[in-house]
Amino acid sequence: MKSLTLLAPLLFCVTLLCSSLNVASDSAAEALAILKWKASLQSQNHSVLLSWNTSNNPNTKTSPCAWFGIHCNHADSVIKINLTGYGVKELDLSTNELYGIIPPKISQLSKLTYLDLSFNQFSGQIPPEISHLVHLQTLHLAGNQLNGSIPREIGQLKFLTDLALCSNKLNGCIPASLEIIRATKDFDAQYCIGKGGYGNVYKAELSSGDVVVVKKFHPLHTGEMADQRQFLNEVRALVETRHRNIVKFYGFCSSAGHSFLVYKYLERGSLASVLSKNEESKKLDWNKRVNIVKGVVNALSYLYHDCSPPIVHRDITSNNILLDLEYEAHLSDFGTAKLLNPESSNWSNIAGTYGYIAPELSYTMQVTEKCDVFSFGVLALELIVGAYPGEFLSNLSILTAESIPLNNVLDQILSPPSPEVVNKLVFILKLAVSCLNINPKSRPTMHTVSQLVFDHI
Question: Ranges for the Protein kinase domain (predicted)?
Fold first, then answer.
């Protein structure tokens, strides 16, 4: 038992453990578990849980049956905790070997914002009464034995942003996914705006007026999706990743018919698309291109040095840099490769896109930060040239900044840059070449790249 937040001013009836949430009958173990639980509670100074202390129990030092709010059966096994009138806002009972049904009366926890019952042995259906938890933001029910249809009522929870239902025997889709399927007419080709190795990308306009991007995985066979608990952790990591230069991730849906990720829609599409169209490319002036380099560096530095554990992108390309109306860069599509099992037919040991892959990956088969540094070098050079810089990458062993005069590589579709911008472009060119060093040990780290960019542009 992990966390339960109590706020005395909030009034409602609570039944936490009843006959449908059964635990082991060892009263000593129960007492220790409850005391550990109590230690994590946040409450006012005059706690109603003062009796939850073995030294205050006149009957025994191990049984919790005389404690306030604790109800036991004749075998001195805890069957209920009743804390009526002490507003529970967070309840985490994950990984506790609880079994039985999820009681509909859980809806009486009307102030609940966080509910985690994952990785237990709950069975039966998800009670539709959960929709009465109008403040709920997180609902984790993964890793149980729940069956039946996913209640449509869950779609009424307007604050719900984190929903985990995998590793159960449920059928149907979560309500939001139903709307996405409707908005794309079951992923009709007319809504497809991009294609990749793992799946296709669709644009969906929801009934609320919001527009999202949906990355739908290619059909997966049984067992191709990664271990569910590991997969859930990966998705949580994506949800918790927040940076102005990283595309906002909204959620994930997996069912027998569809598996897809949902992201924020960015109006100008991919950098690759903009560079491929003359009129659009002309709007991407030198200052905007310099700012795109800065944005990508900021995003990668965040993934490597502010996330724990660090996140290696694996596929940095102009297709995975999305632009908003102001041409600000947003890194997308990181983490996708980690969602599949290595045994999957959709898996490739060579993670990334041809032309951006670090040369050592072909023989080490190990994706590292230095692989992303190499891909960033290709991307930075592409922004200067205005197209994929294939001719400059054909012989990396002799590639130096001196061997590439700036005037010979500048995108001719744009007017010549000002002297101030020329200095920035010369720096970016030198930085790109250092990132493209054929020896990964000689490439700078992304932290070093970030510091250099901060100092020079």
Answer: 187-457
Question: At which residue do the structure tokens 């006959």 appear?
Answer: 19
Q: Is 123 left (phi over 0), alpha (psi -120 to 50) or beta?
A: beta
Task: Say if CB 141 and CB 168 are below 8 A apart.
Answer: yes
Three-state SS annotation for 126-183 = CCHHHHHCCCCCEEECCCCEEEEECCHHHHHCCCCCEEECCCCEEECCCHHHHHHHHH
The backbone region for 56, taken as left when phi is positive above 0, alpha when psi lies in -120 to 50, beta otherwise, is: alpha
Complete domains list, the chain, with CATH = 66-170 (3.80.10.10), 176-264 (3.30.200.20), 269-456 (1.10.510.10)
Tokens for 357? 């892959």
Q: What burial letters (b/e) apply to 201-212, b meaning 16+ CB within 10 Å?
A: bbbbeeeeeeeb
The type of residue at 241 is T
> Around 18, how many Cα atoms within 13 Å sit in the side-chain half-sphere?
12
- Would you call 315 a catalytic residue per the annotation? yes
Per-residue pLDDT of the chain (457 residues), as tens digits, is 343 333 222 222 233 333 333 444 466 776 777 776 666 555 543 456 777 776 654 454 567 888 877 888 887 777 777 766 566 788 888 888 888 999 998 888 888 889 999 999 999 999 999 989 988 888 999 999 999 988 888 877 767 767 888 889 988 766 677 678 878 988 999 999 887 666 788 999 987 788 999 988 776 544 555 545 555 555 666 777 889 999 988 877 765 567 788 889 999 999 999 999 999 999 999 999 999 999 999 999 998 888 877 888 888 999 899 999 999 999 987 655 454 444 444 444 555 678 898 888 777 777 788 999 999 999 999 999 999 988 888 777 677 777 778 888 899 999 999 999 999 999 999 999 999 999 999 999 999 999 999 999 8
**How far are the Cα atoms of 140, 243, 255, 297, 335 from residue 258, in angstroms, in the given order?**
20, 28, 5, 34, 19
Q: Note the pTM of the prediction, 2 decimals.
A: 0.61
Backbone Cα Rg of the chain: 27
Alpha-carbon distances, residue 275 vs 194, 213, 270, 385, 429 (angstroms) = 15, 21, 9, 10, 18
Classify strands 145-149 and 121-124 as parallel, antiparallel or unpaired: parallel
* CA 360 from centre of chain: 29
* Torsion sign (Cα): 22, 28, 33, 38: positive
Burial label for 271, CB within 10 Å (0-12, 13-18, 19+), is buried
DSSP 223: T
Determine which one of 92, 116, 315, 333 is catalytic.
315
